[in-house]
UniProtKB/TrEMBL annotation, chain A:
Biased composition (Basic and acidic residues): 65-74, 388-402
The entry's keywords: Cyclin, Repressor
Chain intervals for the UniProt region annotation (Disordered): 40-74, 366-421
Protein name: RNA polymerase II holoenzyme cyclin-like subunit
Automatic annotation (TrEMBL), chain B:
Pfam families, alphabetized: Pkinase
Keywords, in A-Z order: ATP-binding, Kinase, Nucleotide-binding, Phosphoprotein, Serine/threonine-protein kinase, Transferase
Region described as Disordered: spans on this chain: 358-379
UniProt: ATP binding residues: V70, G71, E72, G73, T74, Y75, A76, V77, V78, K94, K95
Species this chain originates from: Penicillium salamii
Protein name (database record): Protein kinase domain-containing protein
InterPro entries assigned to the protein according to its UniProt record, in alphabetical order: CDK, CDK7, Kinase-like_dom_sf, Prot_kinase_dom, Protein_kinase_ATP_BS, Ser/Thr_kinase_AS
């Protein structure tokens, strides 16, 4: 039984791992089906409208004309690429939403929520279910599955704007169904911590050689680490360098790894190693050398042999891994946050506008009990007004004070303390 | 299955097969590799106005037929059912009740149970074949059918005779199940005889993951309000916010002791009583035998005159003669008061007891009892910790505390 076997038993591998092409075709199918549905639903709602208005017998001036024009014009639906941009935007929003809570939600809960969203939108279209309504629910479900439980009321109160607990919980079942009732997400964060600890141990002269390289001593490893190529940005000491690379990698894992298809295409260890390569290539390659031996040469194996005259027995694995990690690094590096890029933001606004016209009218209201509640307008920007955020800040402050008074409250702030390891 | 882009673990391919786990994984891997491509090829035909995931859910639901109700608790109703196209393949269907008092969506017990059973595939962990929802938004778990009842039933039935070879077989299966959980970084946190269910072939299965959770990251707090009292280790009774798989190993030790003497070994009436009974039985924890114990939040200092020295091997041999000296040694290692000195599940499996005489009884020769289906129904429907005054505390504490 090796770790790989355990990973292959996970639902993340069994149900949520794809090749690039299978992922693409799955999304294309989802988009096609949803587009057909949207067109049919919009047609139905128009027919209904015209039926009621003619039944009322008092056609409003001009309404007839408008109706005809719309009927003739085929509704333009989102493309799979546009859907993906929209989902990505709401993934970024999820990260921000988690940040607004006091204390901020743990990275793990936010990352899990983002992966829930991404998984949900493989088989569901934003045209059917607006990501805005699914996003909050995904984060709430993540607080349950990641052991960061808070009450629904408390959670809803933390959301900027008017969001009721019922709004948050309404799509829960739908979301869980879309997740195929698999809640466990295997993140790359723990693997990174382990790798960093190992490097630190090597730097301290406490390194352990890989089982197949027993001749290496802790001193050899330490010397090897000290003689690697300099870091991208100069650092005071090896510990410092490791800490900088650690921080950069963590940031990549919190952002680029979440907002791209990395989790669908690569394993957690491939993801963190790729991010580590982006952060500090010589350091990451050193770690790979320690684990798998021998540097990878670009061409066919040269007489790169060990003292017994044998090639590194793991040469094949190392080369294969090199290819995978290079691909994954490129994917991570391709990511730039939407909100910091005016071109992407402009595109997003266009998509949001387009979505406004192709939102499935029959799926807007997700609340279980109130079928006749007014249809809420899909909101494109999710911008909170100045006064609104002020009001919420006040509300939160009051709540925090109240919590501080009830020192022993089970949800009190002192219980969520985290001591840095 | 052609319709579904996702593999399902429906029992048609698992029942009657002793090494299901391996086969399942092989099938799953195939599906992961080829299954997704199949979807694109066989474009899902929209049925009426159903979304793709709705349709998949209906496909799963229609694969099963409910036969009769076999258990009901506050939390769930349990039915025996079968695969629609194979009436001989029985399953247990646990329908989770929507809790009217609990407004926060799907209850935590259900979330935890589903989360962990989806991941843990092992011959000694109850298999979750499928999950589906019904029109009224109730969740149903399709679980392995385990008609052999549970270990509690066998322990309590004075008509049933069993010996150390049988105990070795049962304990071996329990230890492997717990090992698998820990290997996957999952703490069960409610091991006790009536959560150890028995399959038709005699295999013991760890069930009820309603209190399970993943190992916490270093520094994160966990609730100590877990594990049924008689099986709860001292570190939890003392309120330790950080703990490990050692808590489950203690419970295993208590089950082992109970199998040997056929009554719960340390049965306190209250948490305080449980602490004093443990100390009387195994010795008093001190800073010498358990460094750091006095720093635990609910640690109760013992008067110097009352200190009982830690029990040695001869105590365990005297108290549990049926186990034999090697068995007593394993039991002692599972019952170390200091969790750092307790054996891990892996170390338990490496103990020499498993290889000395007598050999564990073969599954088909293990003592069994009829009426197990009803017992399974009760076990799967029950959630002890949720009843009475503990109800809301268990939920809140667990998730409020980090």
């Amino acid at each position: 039984m090796i770790e790989d076997d355990i990973y292959r038993a996970s639902s993340q591998y069994r149900l949520w791992s794809y090749t690039e092409s299978s992922l693409q075709s799955l999304r294309a199918t989802t988009n096609t089906v949803a587009s057909e549905r949207v067109r049919a639903a919009l047609r139905r709602s128009r027919e209904q409208q015209s039926a009621t208005s003619s039944a009322a017998g008092t056609p409003q001036p001009g309404s007839d004309m408008d109706g005809k024009n719309k009927d003739e014009k085929e509704i333009e639906c989102l493309t799979p690429e546009e859907e993906l941009v929209l989902v990505r935007y709401y993934c970024e929003k999820t990260l921000e939403l988690g940040e607004t809570y006091r204390p901020p939600m743990p990275t793990m809960a936010r990352a899990t929520a983002i992966q829930y969203l991404r998984r949900f939108y493989i088989t569901n279209s934003p045209m059917t279910y607006h990501p805005k309504s699914i996003m909050a629910c995904a984060l709430f479900v993540a607080t349950k599955t990641e052991n960061y439980y808070m009450s629904l009321r408390q959670f809803a109160d933390g959301i900027p704007g008017e969001t009721s607990p019922e709004d948050v919980i309404a799509p829960e079942f739908l979301l869980m169904q879309g997740l195929r009732f698999t809640f466990d997400i295997r993140h790359p964060f723990r693997g990174l911590e382990g790798g960093v600890m190992e490097l630190q141990a090597i730097a301290d002269g406490q390194g352990q050689p890989a089982p197949h390289l027993p001749h290496e001593t802790a001193e050899d490893l330490q010397q090897g680490l000290l003689s690697i190529a300099p870091p991208p940005t100069p650092s005071k000491s090896m510990s410092d360098r490791i800490a900088v690379a650690h921080g950069k990698t963590r940031d990549l894992l919190k952002t680029a790894a979440q907002m791209t298809d990395a989790y669908f295409l690569y394993t957690p260890s491939q993801i963190w190693l790729s991010a580590f390569l982006v952060a500090d290539r010589p350091l990451a390659e050193f770690l790979l050398d320690v684990k798998l031996g021998g540097p990878v040469t670009a061409t066919i194996p040269t007489p790169e042999t060990d003292e017994n005259g044998l090639l590194n027995p793991l040469y094949e694995i190392r080369s294969k891994l090199h290819r995978v990690l290079t691909e994954c690094s490129a994917l991570l590096q391709s990511y730039t946050p939407l909100s910091s890029d005016p071109v992407q933001m402009k595109n997003l606004k266009r998509i949001a506008k387009k979505l406004y016209h192709c939102q499935n009218p029959e799926k807007v209201n997700l609340k279980r009990e109130s079928a006749q509640a007014p249809v809420s307008q899909p909101d494109s920007g999710a911008v909170t007004s100045e006064s609104e955020s002020e009001r919420l800040a006040k509300k939160r402050k009051l709540e925090q004070e109240q919590m501080a008074r009830q020192g022993n409250d089970v949800f009190g702030p002192d219980l969520v303390q985290r001591t840095k390891p | 299955m052609a319709l579904s882009p996702f593999s399902s673990r429906s029992p048609s391919m698992t029942v009657h097969s002793p090494n299901t786990a391996i086969r399942l994984r092989a099938t799953a891997a195939q599906n992961a590799a080829s299954g997704t491509a199949a979807v694109a090829a066989s474009k899902p035909v929209p049925h009426g106005d159903r979304e793709l995931t709705e349709q998949l859910n209906i496909d799963v639901r229609e694969r099963y037929v409910k036969d009769k109700k076999v258990g009901e608790g506050t939390y769930a109703v349990v039915f025996v059912g079968h695969l629609r196209d194979n009436p001989s393949s029985l399953v247990a269907i646990k329908k989770i009740k929507v809790n009217a008092e609990y407004k926060d969506g799907l209850a935590m017990d259900a979330v935890r149970e589903v989360k962990y059973l989806q991941e843990l595939k092992h011959p000694n962990v109850i298999a979750l074949h499928d999950v589906f929802s019904s029109k009224d938004q109730n969740l149903s778990l399709v679980l392995e059918f385990l008609p052999g009842g549970d270990l509690e039933m066998l322990i309590k039935d004075s008509d049933i005779q069993y010996g150390v070879a049988d105990i070795k077989a049962w304990m071996g299966m329990l230890a492997r199940g717990v090992w698998w959980c820990h290997e996957n970084f999952v703490l069960h946190r409610d091991i006790k005889p009536n959560n150890l269910l028995i399959a038709a072939d005699g295999e013991v299965k760890l069930a009820d993951f309603g209190l399970a959770r993943s190992f916490a990251d270093p520094g994160f707090r966990m609730t100590s309000q877990v594990i049924t009292r008689w099986y709860r280790p001292l570190e939890l009774l003392y309120g330790a916010p950080h703990y490990s798989g050692a808590v489950d190993v203690w419970s295993m030790g208590m089950v082992f002791a109970e199998l040997l003497i056929r009554v719960p070994f340390v049965a306190g009436n209250t948490d305080l009583d449980q602490v004093s009974k443990i100390c009387e039985a195994f010795g008093t924890p001190t800073e010498d035998n358990w460094p750091g114990v006095s720093k635990l939040p609910h640690y109760i200092p013992t008067d110097k005159s009352q200190v009982v020295p830690l029990q040695g091997r001869d105590f365990f041999m005297r108290q549990f003669p049926t186990a034999g000296p090697v068995g007593a040694d394993l039991l002692m290692a599972m019952c170390a008061l200091d969790p750092r000195k307790r054996r891990t599940a892996t170390q338990c499996l490496q103990h020499s007891w498993w290889t000395v005489d007598p050999r564990p009884t073969q599954n088909e020769n293990l003592p069994r009892k009829s009426g197990g289906t009803k017992k399974m129904g009760d076990d799967l429907a029950r959630r002890d910790l949720d009843e009475g005054l503990f109800k809301s505390a268990a939920r809140q504490l667990d998730f409020g505390m980090k």
